[in-house]
Write a structure and sequence with these properties.
This protein has 246 residues and is an alpha/beta fold. The chain has helices at residues 10-30, 46-59, 85-92, 114-127, 164-174, 189-193, 208-216; strands at residues 3-6, 35-39, 66-70, 72-74, 104-105, 133-136, 158-161, 183-186, 197-202, 234-238. The chain has seven helices and ten strands. The longest helix is centred in the first third of the chain and has 21 residues, at 10-30.
Length: 246
């Protein structure tokens, strides 16, 4: 069952989730353990990342014991491309924290052997002990990560073809639809569901219908976010506009 938490604005949601992350890091650090975070990109988590940076700078929260795994990366984009997710993460989070570079993991959009890169990514997550807390957004197709419909509950990190709705939605970042890649590497649904906690952020009326589907429709490959209903520790962080169809 998916829990819901309503927030008046994105900043309030960001503060709440960032506090959860900081508390988790503190608890695990005291036990000598790393904290493994699954991270998302796009406009959805920007306020959260800004709040984590603030906690690092102003409250002394250290990220030296944190290991990160990003959900996905565009196929064909390298780390210096301004629309690659590696570039996004460096600009909006990693370079502002004390997280060791060796602890950062993002699928390789330029991999010569994408299948091997995806298999290695799964192995790295297992070797790190699994993801403690996963941050998600949700796309209008119901995608989580880049798991477009249809995506099965047992899907693993793999190469995927992007839905044209997703490409159009993301074209605002590229300036031109023709510049948006057709493929990506993404964690699978099963990979995401193995995270011990999941925090999904959705704000605005444009997300209301897909939030309703994710929470109310029977789980199926046609709306991958519905699989989150099967997770024992998933919370949707919403504003009243995103929750209006519930």
């Amino acid at each position: 069952m998916i829990a819901t938490r309503l927030h008046p604005d994105k900043q309030t949601a960001a503060q709440a989730i960032a506090r959860e992350i900081a508390d988790l890091i503190e608890i695990r650090s005291k036990s000598g353990k790393s904290t493994v975070l699954g991270l998302a990109t796009g406009s959805t988590p920007l306020e959260l990342y800004a709040e984590l940076i603030r906690l690092h700078r102003e409250a002394g929260v250290s990220f030296r014991s944190v290991i990160t795994f990003n959900l996905d990366e565009y196929e064909g984009l390298g780390p210096t491309h301004p629309q690659s997710y590696r570039f996004f993460m460096e600009e909006n989070l990693f370079r502002h924290l004390d997280i060791p570079a060796a602890n950062i993991h993002i699928p390789d959009g330029l991999a010569n052997d994408p299948a091997k890169n995806c298999a290695d990514y799964e192995a790295a997550i297992r070797d790190a002990g699994g993801i403690d807390l996963q941050i998600l957004g949700i796309g209008r197709t119901g995608h989580i990560g880049f798991n477009e419909p249809p995506s099965a509950a047992d899907s693993r990190t793999r190469r995927v073809h992007l839905d044209e709705v997703t490409r159009r939605d993301n074209s605002v970042f590229f300036g031109d639809l023709d510049q948006v890649p057709h493929g990506a590497l993404t964690m699978g649904v099963a990979t995401i569901l193995e995270a011990r906690r999941i925090e999904l952020i959705a704000f605005g009326e444009a997300k209301a219908e897909i939030v309703r589907r994710a929470m109310k429709e029977a789980p199926s490959p046609s709306c991958p976010a519905t699989w989150l209903q099967q997770h024992p520790g998933c919370t949707f962080h919403l504003d009243t506009a995103a929750a209006k169809a519930l």
